[in-house]
Amino acid sequence: MFSETAANRIYRLSAWWDLIVTWPFALPFTLGVLWNFGLTPLHGLTSDGALPPLDVHAVLFGNFFGSVVVIWALVRLNWNDTRLGLYDAAGRVLFSVAMINALMSDISLIVWVFLVPEILWAIVQFLALYPLVKQRLA
């Protein structure tokens, strides 16, 4: 379905996407800036009321998430191994399940901004990379 060149491009683009989207979550200061000047105004466009203020727990887990995803993206960019893309696709499915669960629990609609690309990247990576990895293992 996809050439190896196209599959590698998809794999690398998904890593760049993760790096761009998640680096602000990695540090307390950048998470605060993102929360106050990015996510709060976006939330105001989609919902009534304000986002809850960040507490120490939210910052801690947000920083854990941001740090791990940034490192994972850098690993994928530096180790050009398409098998990692399949693991990434599986991780995206897990992240998507958590976001869907949060949406069912009445979290802010801004989660859709993260959920839709997450599902799309999971599908595209799986479709592009699974045949290549399967072929190498055969």
What does this structure look like?
The protein has about 140 residues and is mainly alpha-helical. The protein is built from five helices and no strands. The chain has helices spanning about 5-20, 30-45, 55-80, 80-105, 110-135. Helix 1 (about 5-20) runs antiparallel to helix 3 and helix 1 packs antiparallel against helix 5 (about 110-135). The longest helix is centred in the last third of the chain and has 27 residues, at about 110-135.
Separation of the first and last Cα atoms:
18 Å
Largest sheet: none
Which residues form runs of ≥5 with pLDDT under 50? none
- The percent range for helix content is over 70%
What overall geometry do the principal axes of the alpha carbons give? elongated
Order of helices and strands: HHHHH
What's the gyration radius in Å? 16 Å
SS summary, helix count: 5
Arithmetic mean pLDDT = 90
How many E strands?
0
Please state the structural category.
mainly alpha
Strand content: under 5%
